[in-house]
Amino acid sequence: MRSPKAYGVYAGPLHPLLAKELAAIVSGRALWIVLLLVCPLVGYSFVQAVSLYSEASAAALESPVLATSLSPLDGILVPTFGSLYVAVTLLFPFVAIRVLGQEKESGALRLLVQLPYRCSTLILLKLAAVLAAWAMVSIPAFSALAIWAILGGHLAAPETLNLLFGHSLYGLLVGAIALFAASISESSATAAIIALAATIGSWVLDFMLAGRSGLSAWLAQLSLTQTLRPFEQGLLSAGLVLGIVAVVCGLSALASVWLPPGTSLRGKVLRSVPYVLVTIAVLGAATQIGQSVDVTEDRRNSFPAADQKLLATLRLPLVITVHLIPEDPRYVDLKRNVLEKLGRVMPNVSVVLAGNRKDFASNSRQDTYGEIDYTYGPRSDVSRSTSPREILPLLYALAGTPPPAPVVGGEYPGYPFVTSADATWFWFLGALPLLIALSWWRSRHSPRVKFSSMAEGGQSWSQARASD
Amino acid sequence: MMTADADRGGNSAQVLRVANLTKHYGREQAIARVAFSVTAGEVLGIVGPNGAGKTTLLELLAGLLAADSGSVFCLGEELPARRRKEALFYLPDGIRLYQDRFATEVVTFFAGVYRRSDAEVAAIISSVGLEPVLQKRVHALSKGYNRRLLLAVGLLTPQHVLLMDEPFDGFDLRQTRNIIEVVRNEAAKKRTFILAIHQLADAERVCDRFILFAGGQVRGVGKLDELRAQTGIPVGSLEEIFLALT
User: Fold this and answer.
1) Do A196 and A59 fall within a single domain?
2) Which of 394-433 (A) contact B at CB < 8 A?
3) Is B20 left (phi over 0), alpha (psi -120 to 50) or beta?
């Protein structure tokens, strides 16, 4: 019956394990219920987004200037996937926790850790299953994109793929939090509380501390919500991607430390320390990486191409001293219209906030409030404008470079599109839920038993009983 | 990995040795300096009442609990807790594997992990009598069939030593006899079994040798005849011997 074979202690094949993890996700109710809940959520967001976009387009069809402000990224993609974001934040942890929580509760984990796999392999494959679950939960949102394209709406591949990439990273991040929560908890209920405390807690953090400065601003940056914003703005940020990957890897490593039941609490804590330190170090390094790519079709995160080309050649340090408080709308404008764009295109830009609310409240600083000092090499100048139309010529003057000749053509045309998506309610509230329910029902079918009923030379239990 | 198959060529040498295994929960001593050894193809029964520490001892052996002190040697080589799965596989009591899944899926998973052929799997399924419930979900299995499923999983594994916690719990007399036959057949192929059993009659029927265990301590080790000689009860049952020693 048993043939002599060599079994490596960590050399188990991956495909049965991955198949088990995927089946564990599909066989539970959580995934299907979340999927059914996401249908109306995404459907409502999509129909509303199309309706608003059509209204704006109707006016824009008469005016090319208005049309340039109409981008499907802002009008359709971000709101539609925004509802998916809500579902992933609030509901997806329940799906992700299941891949580990059920094994802990049933005792199956005690067999799992005895199989020929490293704990890190077990966690990585669980994470792969979580990613697959995220892809399934996103089916309604993907279908909304397909419907938009079928209706004749415009989709720019780079910005669409970038947004999908951002949401998949966010799903992976929430999944990693849920897995870690499940690894340190004895029950799924406790794991859910921990995971939701992290996801909803960071949401609350984001709301509470929005627009604040100093420590509050730093804390707000830790919010999970912040991870999606650059992707929604059409930016692919190397530092952000590295940071998310670092946190996902760190949480996975911690989950693999806390997974095996045979290690003492002290041992687990001690083994966790290096992973926490490495994750923090990589996160710190990621914040220093300023490289990002503007993938939007309208190049909203960049200056005009000729300016981009010229600014990239300005190699001396540019120091910008801003005499504004961070909450001032002018600073927000300046940051969005000028500072962030300069930071991406120029090799050496430093921004200094000259003071805080108290400083500017004193009489001595009031007269300078609103000024922005630009120092490029030995030269400097002052402006109060937040518009690149005034600031870029100032910078060229400081650099002693004539402004570039504007490039004619290639402007973003905008994509006004008048349509109605009301009929898609039948898809989001009828056909799609029906398909999901059918798939759920199909997944509950008994699989075919592939093993032959009698092996060579073996005696079956029933035969043994008959012979008794 | 050390495989059960690798060292079964008629070698009855010591396959596992346990030295001074100790475990405390706070100030309470759960396992006190337990030491024993087991040879290839032997069925060793850890016999004791509920709460004696049998499960704790098995989990310590399997590396699923952190021991305070003590060592486990396999074929003379010390195995730290994280390497125990090279030589031991532990089937806990009272677990239901993947309750939402069908029994056949559970078997397929473990067979896939250990690269068992369909014929090998079919033989194991047949030997434990699992065929009638292969297309049932695990949560719908009776206690006895769930136990058979666990036994099938254990038989699919390749390790030298199979640790089983209360393997006969949930079986009637006839079923117990059949499971004993399955265990004896496997032991005849030089696979070693360490069974934690609280029912002494079952233990007497299946085990070659016994560790009488109470209060986390070994009260006696040996074959039935040796224990009889040790207690001076020449025709005593295991129950009488156990009562005499504990």
Assistant:
1) yes
2) none
3) left
Query: Do residues A50 and A144 share a domain?
Result: yes
- Checking ipTM against 0.95, whether it exceeds it is no
CB proximity A457 to B under 8 Å: yes
Are A4 and B3 an interchain contact pair (Cβ–Cβ within 8 Å)?
A: yes
Residues A239 and A333 in one domain: no
CA gap B227, B236 in Å, rounded: 9
How far A171 CA sits from the closest chain B CA (Å)?
Answer: 25
A113-151 pLDDT per residue, tens: 999 999 999 999 999 999 999 999 999 999 999 999 999
Distance CA B47, CA B201 (A): 10
* Beta carbons of A219 and A236 less than 8 angstroms apart: no
* Chain A residues within 8 A of B134 when measuring between CB atoms: 449, 451
CB-closest option in A4, A8, A450 to B6: A4
> Chain B contact for A467, CB < 8 A?
no
pLDDT tens digits, one per residue of A393-426: 999 999 999 988 877 766 788 899 999 999 999 9
Contact A451 B121 (CB under 8 A): yes
Same domain membership, residue A273 and residue A345:
no
For A323, the domain range is 305-399
Distances (CA, A) of A235 to A158, A160, A229, A309: 10, 11, 9, 19
Chosen from A114, A117, A121, A453 to mutate, greatest number of chain B CBs within 10 A: A114
Domain co-membership, A175 together with A287? yes
Q: Are residues A112 and A16 in the same domain?
A: yes
Question: Please, which pLDDT band fits residue A213 given cuts at 50, 70 and 90?
Answer: low
Q: What is the largest CA-CA distance in chain A?
A: 105
Tell whether A274 is covered by a domain.
yes
Q: Domain count of chain A?
A: 2
A460 at B interface, C-beta within 8 A: yes
What's residue B4's pLDDT? 40
Query: Which DSSP string do the residues of A314-347 spell out, in sequence order?
Result: --S-EEEEE-S-TTSHHHHHHIIIIIHHHHHHSS
Q: Do A264 and B63 touch (CB under 8 A)?
A: no
Contact A454 B126 (CB under 8 A): yes
pLDDT digits (tens, 9 = 90+) for B137-167: 999 999 889 999 999 999 999 998 999 999 8
pLDDT at B238: 83
Confidence band (pLDDT; 50, 70, 90) for A8?
A: low
Q: What is the mean pLDDT of residues B183-202?
A: 90
Same domain, A316 and A235: no
Entry field: residues in chain A:
468
Strands B28-39 and B14-25: antiparallel
Query: Chain A to chain B, count of Cβ pairs less than 8 Å apart?
Result: 177
pTM greater than 0.80 (yes/no): yes
Interface of A with B in 253-272 (CB under 8 A): 260-264, 267
Structure tokens of B95? Answer: 């677990």
pLDDT of A215 > 90? The answer is no
User: Do B5 and A464 make contact, defined as CB atoms within 8 angstroms?
Assistant: no
Give residue A96's pLDDT.
Answer: 93
Q: Which residue has the higher pLDDT, A226 or A169?
A: A169
